[in-house]
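User: Predict the structure for this protein chain, please.
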Amino acid sequence: ISVTDRTEKLSLELPLMTANMDTITEAEMANFIGEKGGIGVLHRFTSIDENVEMFKACKYKPFVSIGCSPEDLERAAALKDAGADMFCVDVAHAHAKYVGRTLKDTRDILGKEACIMAGNVATYAGADYLASCGADIVKVGIGGGSVCTTSIKTGFGVPNLTAIRECSRVNRSIVADGGIRISGDIVKAIAFGADFVMVGSLLAGTTPTPGPVVTKTGKDGKEFKVKVFRGMA
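Assistant: Here is the predicted structure, written as structure tokens:
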């Protein structure tokens, strides 16, 4: 499957993105999924200098992530100088004025040719707001991830397929993020209107992930090794 987003800034042979979590995507995972035709989305939970070095270690150009603090605008500028031109503005609930301001400021820094993905939202109004503020691609899904606590903590959430169907009415490409537990869920998300699908838990614990390895003891007394996987935004 070859997919190009509606603004024609991103084209993938495999419509999969790896989640921008510090236990899922750094350079090794970005290179792994890039080789398969998908794209990695590097996390932002590190220093700006380390983020730049992480980006430079990628053989296949990834998305890089920023938040909505003043430091994140510095991060965006540094990553742009390093050659990045695909950015993900990522917060837990993106239908907010401060996210809109960050999107506009980021666009001013990067220019109109850069590809900016923003999220997460779960309603048509939220997706339309991000599009109006300059997002080329909208990331959809609140509360559906296997380690996501947004719905539990805030009481806000929409079933993922419903959110995808609603948000796909906006004239922007949609990334389904959260709730992808088996390969069939990828197909369902695309059938309901997603252009791309982000996966996290499906990849957790695999060799390319950067999560620390922890030794645990099972009920039988035998030790076994696991990798840490946690939610974040």
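The chain has a mean pLDDT of 93.
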